[in-house]
Amino acid sequence: MTSSHVQVFATGLGAYTVYGAGVDCLWQNLLAQTSVIQPIPTHWTDRHRYVSQVYVPLPPLNPTQWGYKKMDLLQYDPVTLMAMIGVAEALQQAGLSERLSAKDGSIHPHRIGVFMGTGIGGVTTTLANAYHHFKEKSSQSSSTNIPLLFPHVTEANRLTVPRQMPNAIAAAIAIRYGIHGPVKTYCQACASGTVALGEAYRALRNGQLDMAIVGGAEMLGDDVGACFRAFDRMGALTSAANPIDQSCKPFDQQRDGFLFSEGGAGILLLETADCLQQRQQWGDSVKPLAEIVAYAESFDAYHLVIPDPSGRELIHLIQQGLTEAGLTAQAIQYINAHGTGTEKNDAVESQVITQLFGDKVVVNSTKGWMGHAIGASGAIEAIVTIQSLLDQQVHGNAHLQQPIAPFILPTQNYSLTCRHAISQSFAFGGHNALLIFKAS
User: What was the pLDDT predicted at 143?
Assistant: First the structure.
């Protein structure tokens, strides 16, 4: 069998999102069209007057309920803990938890890799350390204009450096499960999770690995809204807040910016067909959830934050993916769009989809409900795409009243016969990435 014909399947899924822990929690809340949009905390406005007044917070993270000890909380930033919670769920679904934890050699440790995407990494640790540093400085001077920030941080964490490293997420996973294959981190802003998935897919398809733990994770929550302020200051966020639960409208004529999410984590276990069959013969409880049949990427080379309005590289991206999968545009029934809700992104994305797929394809945006999880978004949306293939239905678009495009943009859950689906991500910097999934 040549490497170009190696099949790659997703066999396990895990998530920690704004809806809570678990893929089922994520999927059921999307189907229920559950809004988790909240007004920004009132104490944030003590320091800055924000244009955007809404965000989507992550639920409180309680790692001890998953068996993490005090030392784990000291050495891992929340972004790493969320990813590891997702990994545990994905491995459990794939029937691999005990086999990997036993480290008995049945899974060769050099034939499994970890591929993780993140936009920033442990930024909350960086901020907490910096704020404590300024607090210490102010206590030794007469200055009174440096506020007490992160009041719960009583001392600088001696593990600040390993907590804040972007590669700490992938490294912590590999250490926990004794993985000695490639352990890689991808930092392509909003496309990070999709790129990590694509690169893992290539490594398996090309015969370099048998299995990979893959995904994206992001944590942008902080006590004083500094991360939120950075996006608000650049004018990227929605300013609509009335009614509060309808403030983000991807692909609507009244869209005005994306909805800030504190982040989350999406994890997939990928394995080759041969590995999957071998494990089934061993008696592992594992089955294919969906097959990845193509990965493509392109780069705008246009602007650091504005998409190329011509859409040339997005067209190239999609055509490249279709060619690799051996498909025509007509074979794609569903697209989980990048769909941020910003004026320029939605305009060029809808223009490209219409040009290549016409008006028959079904399109939705997960970000309209959950907000934009930056480096985690592509992995979370890949999970949503797989769930759509499994259930043969897609969730409705959020708050859509005046569509900007002729293709199918359902506002309620939409049943369809779907064999092939696309999940696509476009990122600050000009990075574009796409995955094509096939129903198993």
Answer: 43
What is the DSSP-derived secondary structure letter of residue 60?
Answer: P
Measuring CA to CA, how many Å separate 386 from each of 254, 336, 354?
A: 30, 10, 23
Which residue in 212, 260, 265 sits closest to 370, CA to CA?
A: 260
Q: Give the pLDDT confidence score for residue 67 in this predicted structure.
A: 86
Q: Residue 40, CB half-sphere, CA atoms under 13 Å: how many?
A: 33
Q: What is the pLDDT of residues 397-419, one digit of tens each?
A: 999 999 999 999 999 999 999 99
CA distance 348 to 360: 18
**How far, CA to CA in Å, does 13 sit from each of 23, 24, 227, 418?**
7, 10, 28, 20
pTM beyond 0.70, yes or no: yes
Class of domain 7-282: alpha beta
Radius of gyration in angstroms for the set of CA atoms belonging to the chain, rounded to a whole number? 21
Domain extents for the chain? 7-282, 292-439
Q: Domain 292-439 falls in which CATH fold?
A: Peroxisomal Thiolase; Chain A, domain 1 (3.40.47)
Distance between CA atoms of residues 158 and 188, nearest Å: 29
